[in-house]
Automatic annotation (TrEMBL):
NCBIfam families: A118_put_portal (TIGR01542). The keyword Glycoprotein does not apply. Pfam families: SPP1_portal. It comes from Companilactobacillus nantensis DSM 16982. InterPro entries: Phage_portal_A118-type, Portal_protein_SPP1_Gp6-like. Residues 266-293 form a coiled coil. This is Phage portal protein.
Length: 516
């Protein structure tokens, strides 16, 4: 944390801006969310002093709910079934055109090829998980080896410089790494003037990884050779926007009203996360401390002769944790010989599990999930709901809210990719495009419940054409669904004809038998 705070001051000292749009308090918040996502928040590190005044420290057991929350929301919002379709802009849209007809154009082919080359669908879901966990992420675009490349960065590497009504317009992205035993920081500046969008790269070498300053500036070729330019200009005549996109959860930043940065989905649930980890640690302690214990008179324990004193001594068998010895003093009376006694304490698992489930419902409400989205049982541990009960559920509304931000980002992404390709002459088509983004809602809706609801209000009449149902059920294009439908109709018609022939054959047989 101190290194990052020092990095802010160092960036300001070497930059042309008077102040970055981020301060130490915001850095602390990002570090807090990041530590929680990694499963190592500060609150699980406990210290206590025993009755003998001996200090002890231990690490609490943790449910690691920040990771689970981020993963759950990322998988709901984005999956490999997201369909990004790019078409050439036209004022007169042909509604009769099929999906295959619309997708078969140079712009869409270039976009799909670029996304596949960059493993976009795999990487995007992973970084969206980081975004929900730490409050933001960045996508950067550039051209290398004749292809448009997409790189991602996490919230702790992003430092905004300026913003407007559309979001962050200038920033610096800091990347720390080690090479050949030396510590480096690459500052990637995204700036603009009246005529150009500017990307400038500065490389600094420091003494160690935890240094509070950037260190000494060194040439880029020290690490990258000639593969990275010191500065690249993108004329505003050819580009409509910067070559980076900052994404954040669709949540208002209630920690800093004027900050352009986002917040984690569990930013306002830290106290609940602490209580959950405490309850889970209590459950583990209960299981550990509640193991069976039997006290046994020391007369019944194993013994050995002390080689130094020659006196027989009783001792515990430390390979067996069930039995604990005690000295029998005859208080039970002569008629009651010493005997083992079970002193195992009853477990409070059920009470603690009920507490955990109550806290999970509170956490769900604080993070945009429906009540009952998460539950804990003593047989299967933590479970998550497989679907959303209705279209009006909190989870479904949160999903749609975050998709609004993603849809806008994906549209900007396609525009930037085509403009980079056009300027680099690896793409020759138009950059005047329309982009549609279709998210997969099937993983967030209970289809049976929705179908029952709409069938009820329509009087059990068909809800959609059969071809549309095939398209949505199997994720097919219109042409593929029509092929399925034609084949189904053909099989059904063949089946009905066979029935007719069988009936005629049966009637002919009966007539022959009657004549005979």
């Amino acid at each position: 944390m101190l290194a990052k705070m020092g990095l802010i001051k160092s960036i300001e000292s070497v930059s042309d801006v008077s102040n970055l749009l981020i301060d130490d308090d915001q850095v602390k918040q990002i570090d807090l969310w990041d530590a929680a996502y990694k499963g190592d928040p500060k609150w699980i590190h406990k210290k206590w002093t025993s009755a003998l005044n001996n200090p002890h420290s231990y690490k609490q057991k943790s449910l690691n709910m920040p990771k689970i929350l981020s993963k759950k929301m990322a998988s709901l919002v984005f999956s490999k079934k997201v369909n990004i379709l790019v078409t050439e802009h036209t004022d007169n849209k042909d509604d009769s055109a099929t999906d295959d007809d619309q997708s078969d154009n140079e712009a869409n082919n270039f976009i799909q090829s670029t996304l596949d080359d960059n493993y976009f669908y795999n990487n995007c879901e992973r970084y969206l998980e980081y975004m929900f966990g730490t409050g933001g992420m960045v996508m950067r675009f550039y051209v290398a080896n004749g292809k448009v490349k997409i790189r991602f960065a996490t919230a702790d590497s992003f430092y905004p410089i300026s913003q407007d009504e559309n979001g962050v317009t200038e920033c610096v992205i800091a990347s720390k790494f080690v090479k050949s035993g030396k510590y480096y920081t690459l500052l990637e500046w995204h700036l603009e003037d009246d005529k150009n969008y500017i990307v400038r790269n500065d490389l600094y070498q420091s003494i160690d990884a935890n240094s509070d300053d950037l260190g000494t500036r060194v040439p880029l070729k020290t690490v990258y050779g000639t593969s990275v330019n010191d500065e690249s200009n993108y004329p505003k005549l050819l580009y409509t926007r910067p070559t980076f996109i900052y994404l954040k959860p669709n949540l208002a930043n209630n920690f800093s009203y004027n900050s352009p940065l986002g917040i984690s989905i569990y930013a306002n649930a830290i106290d609940t996360l602490k209580q959950l980890d405490q309850a889970y640690d209590m459950l583990n302690q209960e299981m550990e401390m509640g193991r069976r214990r039997i006290i046994v008179p020391d007369q019944l324990m194993e013994r050995r002769v002390n080689p130094y004193t020659g006196i027989p001594e009783y001792f515990m068998n430390y390979d067996e944790q069930v039995y604990q010895g005690f000295t029998f003093n005859g208080t039970a009376g002569a008629d009651s010989p010493p005997a083992p006694k079970d002193i195992t304490l009853p477990l409070r698992n059920q009470e603690i599990i009920e507490t955990i489930n109550s806290l999970l419902d509170i956490l769900a409400a604080q993070t945009g999930f429906s009540a009952g989205s998460f539950s804990y049982s003593n047989t299967q541990g933590l479970e998550t709901a497989t679907g959303v009960i209705s279209r009006n559920s909190d989870t479904y509304q949160s999903k749609n809210s975050h998709e609004t931000i993603l849809e806008d980002a994906f549209k900007k992404m396609c525009q930037t990719i085509l403009e980079l390709g056009k300027a680099s002459k690896i793409y020759t088509g138009t950059t005047d495009i329309d982009v549609s983004v279709n998210f997969d809602d099937s993983i967030a809706k209970d289809r049976t419940e929705n179908a029952n609801y709409y069938e009820l209000i329509t009087g059990n009449k068909p809800l959609m054409p059969r071809k549309d149902a095939i398209m949505q059920a199997f994720g097919l294009t219109e042409d593929q669904a029509q092929d399925y439908l034609d084949r189904l109709n053909e099989e059904e018609s063949q089946g009905s004809m066979d029935d007719v022939l069988d009936n005629n054959h049966y009637e002919d047989t009966n007539e022959n038998d009657h004549e005979a």
